[in-house]
Amino acid sequence: MTSLEEKLDKIRSPNLQSQQQTVIVLKAVEETLKEQNTSPTPTGYFAALLALLNQSVGEGKGNKELTPSIVYLLDTVTPFTPQPLLRAKFTQILTLLAPVLLLASADAPLLKPSIGCLESLLLAQDSAAWKLPTSEISPRRAVAGLLHLALDPRPKVRKRAQDALRKVLKNPPPSPSLDHPASDLCAETAMSSLSDLAAKFSLAKRQQKKGSASEHDPALIHALQLVKTLAAASGGWPSRNLESLCELLLGITKGGNEHMTMAVFEIFEMIFEGMADEVASAKLPRLLEIISEMRPAAQDTQLLPPWIAILSRGYDVSAQIEPEETFLKLPDLFAMISDFMDSSSHNIRVSASECLISFIVNCIPDQVIIEPSVYDEKTLEKIAKLAEGLISVKYQAAWMETFKVLGAILDTLRWRADPIMRNVVRTIGELRGNDSFVGKKQADEVIGKAVRAMGPEAVLSVLPLNLVKPASGDVGRAWMLPILRDYTCNTNLQHFRTELVPLSEAMFQRVLDHGEAAKTMEIKIYETLVHQTWSILPGYCDLPMDLTVAFDQSFAEMLANLLYKQVDLRLDICRALRSLVESNQAIVAFEDGDELLLQSRLPKSEAQKNLTYLSGFSGNLLAVLFNVYSQTLPQSRGPILQTINAYLSIASESELVETFDRVSTMLASAVNEASDKEGKSKSQSSQDKIPSTSQTLMDLVITMSAYLPRQSFSALFNIASVIIVKTDEPQLQKKAYKLIPRLADSDTGKIALREKNGELQSLLLSSADKVSAPARRERLAAIAGLIPFISDDALHFIPSVLSEVVICCKENNEKARNIAYDLLVSMGQRLEQAKGKQIDNRKVPHMPEDSPSVSASIEEFFTMISAGLAGSTPHMISASVTALTRVLYEFREAVNSEVLSDLVQTMDLFLTSNNREIVKSVLGFVKVCVISLPTEMMVPRLQSMVPNLMVWSHEHKGHFKAKVKHILERMIRRFGFEPVNKSCPEADKRLLTNIRKTKERSKRKREAAKAQGNEDDQQSSKRRGRFESEYDEALYSSDDSDASDDSDHNVAGTSRRAKKGGDAYIMEDEDEPLDLLDRNALASISSTKPGKLRKAGKIKMKTDIDGKLIVGEDGGVEDDDAMVVDTPGDGEGGGVGAYVAALKSKDAGRKGRGGRLKFSNKRGQTDENDDDEMDVDEKEVSTIKSHVNRGRGGGNFRGGRGRGGGGGGMRGGRSGKGGIASGRRGLGEDKRRGPAAGFGGGKVGKPKSPGRR
Prior knowledge:
This protein is mostly helical. The chain has 60 helices and eight strands.
């Protein structure tokens, strides 16, 4: 708790101007205490402030500004004031504060501290004071004032008053009563207010006066909030007022207002929570009795659902406090709620079903399932009988809800559901077998839960499969096989052997009898039945009850034969064998008290016996699994290897050593044979080719390594040392490196890594130059597995392999890069742990013999990596920069500022490099610096860093411009616009201006969208969590705060990379949709949106009386306009506009190289409507029209234009070369020749079609 002096210190240094008055009052009080030589104790402060308050209130209106400050300080001091003093001054303080509390115009800054003062005073009162009536100046009167303020419309005042009441009621004075002395007063007042407001609200609603309803709505919510506060504080609710409260609350829910109903639920929740402790639990039976008596009418759709929900929650609490008594009431409760399942209202049925599920789940204790008494068994039978009644025709409308209830009963009763639930299962099975039944999915789920609870044997006894030799009238139930597969567990394995193995054999025999002929549909069904039957075996092997009896030698031999012969069944059999081990291991691993129900059927001692029994089969099973593994393709080996792993974990030590010796001997001979055949084609692992023997055996060795005893580790490391240096078989080398990470996962392996650490270090260092490219990632993982086990006197191993790790930061393989980054971090952490220990540089390869030792520290680690900056190749320098970036981000808080400053200065120089590879890495480093390093370190560097960055803002290759822009945006966000702008060269300030304007624009857009309520939160939620680590997010993300601008997104959106994976469009005929299965379908998929080809416009021709077409005659102006080129027609196919559109359209052909026509389907930026119309500039149209008009041969008749228009500089001025200006004749007109120049006559030429250019 904060001390008084700390609180006063905060007041002495205020953050707000409005608190200055309080500071002045506090200083005045402290000076007064000094003058009177009174020590500044809580009592001294209290006395001085009380005198000051008395004086301030006595002066009346003159000190309105002073009173809030005095009361605020008094509120601060009273919690620390001795309680006897508060009791003595109670009457005086209440007399002074009462006018303030009752004043309607009192401000919140005065009311809130006044409430705090009253809270402290009331907490100090004893039982005698609480007995005084409200009519006197007593604590009860103060509580009445708080209750009045607890309904204040101002939220802060209301909350403060409710908090004060909660605290007072939770801390009653010492007395024999369960309730606080003021709880009755609080309850009555709150209920009176609630009742009045509810009546007003109900009346207003009946009269349909919307204004009144909305006026009383908030007040009613506030009153409910007060009741909720009091219920939480007073251990539920005072016993005498329980009945009237329940009646009132249920009446409010009847109104149908969702907010009110939720508030009422919360109040009952609080009441029940308050009764969950032992002290208040005595009130619970009475409360439940009251709620039960208030049972609404059976068809009351508004009141019944909330009443059922409240009853459900009440008995949930009752089951926690008195589990046995609540269980005995369960049949009556079940019967009462079951009556509502035949309701015509769906809401009532759903509420009733959820209540029944709650009763079953919460009110049946585990002890009843584990060790039921005779009376308990009878109670369970009653519940099963009631559940059976729910499947009758009477409740047919509620069958879907009933299935959920039955599922909950089966899940809760577990094996006790047999035999009392057999009739239920039989009935549901018969319903499920009916083809017209619509709830098959729900029925399957119930039957599945019955299989899990009662066991498949019990279910199949009432619902037999009838597949082998069905009697007449029996229905086959092949649909049950998938249900058995999904739900079988913790049952008798012997049942599988006696029932399902013969079924599988019978079905398989029918397949064999068919011979080699083409498979019919019937034969395929038999094959499917065989597979489905064996897919159930893993469920039977999940914690079987009779493992030692059912899993004998003959069954193991049968499984082994199937593994060899039936490739399709390998997966299921391997899963089953693995499940036998792992399910028993899970029971053995349970702590005492965990999973009591499961352990009651199979205790830990029994599970341990099962594991011991299975270990006797492990030798033979492992031999079989090894052979099967060697015959299986790589993509199918995973389950077999997991099964091998499971049986290795339970095999005896002697068995393990013997198996390991046998495998390692075979591996040695296989490696030698491979060396002899080195001249032949190298073995390459592929998906359709079985890997070499040596690779297979190496997999087995790695799997076994985690379980080997210590005496076998020497041989194991010898194998690794031989294979790691083999360069002729990269895949084998890759597997050998996996040995160290595998050992690091086991306890004995960790011991071995510690003991053999020196040898392994030497092995890794000596094989550095022999590592193949595919094995590089595994080598890094091996080094990472070894780092935690390095002793303090072998720290030289870190600088020895550091250069290799740094180079791998530039690996093409992403996983290898990530391992390299993580390895750098673990190296840094190891050196930080060994801070102060010596690193012997003489032992580091390629270091001089007289190299001095250095002290291990994180700064030294930075120095080691920085050595790579002097590398001879840009690749090495770039890798070193990348490595420094990663460790800088990880250890930025642990490194001293001098090292960081030198590092930033060095990178600033590297920005001036001419090599793109180096600069690309440096840009990443700069970005991390801008994001994570202290502002005071970075701001001085901006003067040199910003100009160096700007040099690369003009480089477009490798997205340098975009990267620089990102960094500048980050700088502006963190350091402000002015510092960055000041450091920027004048010529490059346009980029900063663009960033600033883009930011402001996006901010305006966000604010506008927010104002309209259209802000899209989906994008922000999608962007969150894109990166695997904080480092990746810092390096590659483009926004580091929720308030960041959208410019990063804009840059990314306009880059080619963003466009690369864009939308795809399907082009299909109008008549026939595209067949996506056609191998030529890819030709009809385009990355750009294809435009619609325009249809030729239709021209309406005139006809005479006989219906003959009239062509070329002079008609009305309106008709002719569609036929001539100089007048824009109504349709798009006529006039100059159409002609220009045809020439300039995107669909028009263009001549490319070699005179070939090309067609484009690119959309223009202004192409927004579906018609893809091209807008022709009006000026252009008018220009063309003027050219055409000039080219007419004179006279007024239309279409009479000669070839070769007017002279001047006009196009087409030469004879025979006319363009559009030379015009064309109208339809039906004679051929005519125009003048060669000007408007006179002259030589004529044959006109060409306008399309021939």
